[in-house]
Amino acid sequence: MRNLHIFFICFLASILSIQYIAAQGVVGTSARKLQFAHFAITNLYVDSVDDNRLVEEAIIKMLAELDPHSVYADPEEVKRMNEPLAGNFEGIGVQFNILEDTLFVIQPVSNGPSEKAGILAGDRIVAVNDTAIAGVKMNTEEIMRRLRGPKDSKVELTIARRGVGELLVFTVKRDKIPILSLDASYMIQPKVGYIRINRFGATTIEEFNKALKELKKKGMKDLILDLQGNGGGYLNAATDLANDFLNQKELIVYTEGRTSKRSEIYAKGNGNFKKGRLVVLIDEFSASASEIVSGAVQDWDRGVIVGRRSFGKGLVQRPVDLPDGSMIRLTIARYYTPAGRSIQKPYNSNNSDGGSHNSGEENRDLYNRELIERYNSGEMLSADSIHFPDSLKYQTKRLGRTVYGGGGIMPDYFVPIDTTMYTDYHRMLINKGVILKATTKYIEDHRKSLSERHKDFKHFNEHFKIDNEMLNMVKEMAATDNITYNEEEYQASLPLLTAQLKAFIARDLWNMNEYFQIINETSPSIQKAIEILNSGEYEELMK
After folding, report:
1. Are 252 and 306 in contact (CB under 8 A)?
2. Residue 206 above 70 pLDDT?
3. Distance between CA 534 and CA 476 in Å, rounded?
4. In which region does residue 262 sit, left (phi positive, over 0), alpha (psi from -120 to 50) or beta (all else)?
């Protein structure tokens, strides 16, 4: 009887609480309905329930009915999500591969905690604080959790080093480790610089301007900006980059939504590359911030866009922090290019009256498969397969060229995806990690001789060749991993395979900058960009 009395007191308090909130105009009928349902389940349901999980599932299901980019993240996911954009994390500072349950150090971060402690490229970390991580089937996330930790905390690493009989123990004092936005910056040919940006983070514009300054010292007049595969990041990083190319008071992007008034961002006129020819590379994985930059460059006729239609992610998310450290990223507006094009591709399967036949989950599934549909329709292979209605035609701001809306940025010069070298045999080599395993093994066996033979990357790039010994090792490793050998497919993929092997070796000896200098030689988009700059096509388009 006493429990029933307590229940009715709680029930009455809940009603009064809801009525008070509703009286304040904060919660409507739907919200009251939801709160009553939650109260009933937690207090009346026959079995005990996980209240936190119940609320999380309700939030997730509600967001699933909206759009593909309104999402819920738990506290741990929030931390992981923010790290790459924040520009740093706290850890030991090594680049590594995990090969056959063993962590191989590719390179310690320059002047980072591991390098200071004496850890070398090629070392194998076999234990962390007396806990074995080698040969125990520990997943990468668990290994990362053990290696990372607060700044100034200490971790004991047990190292197996080639040529040393016993295990070595190092105490590493963790520190902030930078996460770089730039993968590469180098002179791709005389007077033409190349910069590749992998994400738009807190340090992107600082890294870009530093690279730009160095390239100008080397005689750069024109720039190839590579945003292929760049999924986006911070809006201000994108607008700061676009500002480097545009003149004062030129619109970079504007946002607008049902409850969000139109907000415009303009160039300040203090950019570092307002003159000089500019080619921007994009593909189907270039999204969000990448599309803001390429859209602004295209709409102002500031440069030439080369590649394939970008992803089409033009929704503005506002983070809504929840009391337990979790977060909702809620879509509040859309991004529009200076010419008025909505960047966002459709995410509803609509009928004639604008409604949707599908559930939110079905729409998300269709949205996620849209890139596959592009391939199936032939869009990835031929520009002739791409058709836009007149309603999606827009004019650029200076020259009045026709550009297209409808989702994503359509390039000025289309480059089809190269399928000739990507065979099933090569795909299996990638999927099963054979190429990475082969290069790791090769580096482990030949690091000293490679360093003695090639004093710098220039010498390595000009003289190092992938020989039959290494190719045979790849085939043997593939056979061990039950990959059926196919001579025809092997020969078709051989140019790409040898480039990847050489590029990974260069990365392990130097860094990502050297990796891209090699791998870019196989890129049709890079070759098209160089052709446009050398042939006069750039001037023809821009006159």
Report:
1. no
2. yes
3. 43
4. beta
CATH of the domain spanning 88-178: 2.30.42.10
Measured CA to CA, the distance from residue 363 to residue 376 in angstroms comes to 19
Alpha helices in 122-234 (DSSP H): 140-147, 204-217
1-15 pLDDT, tens digit per residue, is 444 444 444 444 444
Give me the chain's average pLDDT, please: 87
Three-state secondary-structure class, residue 530? helix
Q: 487-509 vs 468-480: helix axis angle to the nearest 10?
A: 110
Break the chain into its structural domains and give their ranges: 22-64, 88-178, 182-318+329-346+359-417, 424-510
Contacts of 22 (CB under 8 A, 6+ apart): 28, 32
| Dihedral of alpha carbons 328, 333, 338, 343, sign | positive
Tokens 């607060």 — which residue?
A: 150
Cα(41)–Cα(60) distance, rounded to whole angstroms? 18
* CATH topology (fold) of 182-318+329-346+359-417: 2-enoyl-CoA Hydratase; Chain A, domain 1 (3.90.226)
Nearest-5° angle of CA 290, CA 291, CA 293?
A: 70
- What's the CA dihedral at 88, 94, 97, 99 to 10 degrees? -140
pLDDT of 21 higher than 70: no
The total number of residues shown for the chain amounts to 543
Q: Rounded to the nearest 5 degrees, what angle is found at the Cα of 201, between the Cα atoms of 308 and 150?
A: 140
Rg of the chain over all Cα atoms, to the nearest angstrom: 27
pTM of the predicted model as reported, rounded to 2 decimal places: 0.83
Active-site positions? Answer: 288, 299, 313
Q: Average pLDDT for residues 464-479, to the nearest whole number?
A: 94
| Separation of alpha carbons 203 and 213, rounded Å | 16
